[in-house]
Write a structure and sequence with these properties.
The chain is globular. The protein has a single domain, classed as Flavodoxin domain (Rossmann fold, 3-Layer(aba) Sandwich). It is an alpha/beta fold.
Length: about 240
């Protein structure tokens, strides 16, 4: 069954959040094509992931020293109640990620980077060996599609004065490719100048903002409708 993990990280409600509106549009198109059974939604602002603790680190180090440990065996390696709690918080998030054919992320730009809510989720799912096949070391996310939908109050597109202030795209590209997602399966959709309508100093950029938003809507609609050639195709062979 084709599956979608939809993750929003904006602290702004849906009425004002461009990233939430765009990811909701993607999810709507996707559900029309595939149904609701494979759809999973996580709101990191409404239901935040707790920050990793020393117990998480201790367990991670112990597991990492053993190589690629199957997820089913990690619980048996816990030594304290705190480590058991950390693993109980972590495993469901990893399993959601592994189960998804497509991972959809709504990512507003906060202070040139990603929201803390998203970083907390990233830190927790990045448990040693979680996305490697035990025994072979095969990357389990190599066929997973990741769609990152960003919303930026200013403009950080290539060739603009603030291009070098974009620490959002390079960070997420480095993170997901290092995690095992292939470059061809990693997609970015940017809505630029989203504050042009309400910040007086940016008012002259309203046409740019409108064009960028239109392009973003076109991109998310096309990506949502595009067949995923990853694990679904692999299972059919």
């Amino acid at each position: 069954m084709t599956s979608l993990l939809h993750v929003d990280s904006s602290a702004t409600d849906a009425g004002d959040s461009i990233s939430r509106q765009l990811t909701a549009g993607f999810a709507q198109v996707w559900r029309k094509l595939h149904g609701a059974d494979g759809y999973r939604y996580r709101d990191l602002a409404a239901d935040p992931v707790s920050l990793v603790s020393p117990a998480f680190v201790s367990l991670g180090l112990r597991v990492e020293r053993q190589g690629a440990v199957p997820l089913a065996k990690v619980a048996g390696m816990t030594e304290t109640a705190a480590e058991e709690r950390e693993w109980a918080l972590t495993l469901p998030l990893i399993e959601e990620m592994l189960a998804a054919d497509t991972v959809l992320l709504g990512v507003p730009m906060y202070n040139f980077s990603v929201p803390a809510s998203l970083k907390a989720w990233i830190d927790r799912i990045t448990f040693p060996g979680a996305f490697l096949a035990s025994g072979t070391g095969e990357r389990l996310l190599r066929r997973t599609r990741v769609v990152v939908v960003t919303a930026r109050g200013g403009c950080y597109a290539p060739g603009t004065p603030r291009e070098g202030f974009d620490f959002q795209t390079p960070y997420l590209r480095a993170y997901f490719t290092d995690l095992g997602v292939s470059e061809e399966n990693l997609h970015f959709v940017h809505a630029e100048m989203t504050r042009a309508g309400d910040v007086p100093q940016l008012a002259r950029f309203k046409p740019l903002a409108a064009d960028s938003l239109t392009a973003a809507w076109t991109a998310v609609t096309e990506l949502a409708a595009r067949p995923v050639g990853g694990r679904a195709a692999a299972r059919s062979r």
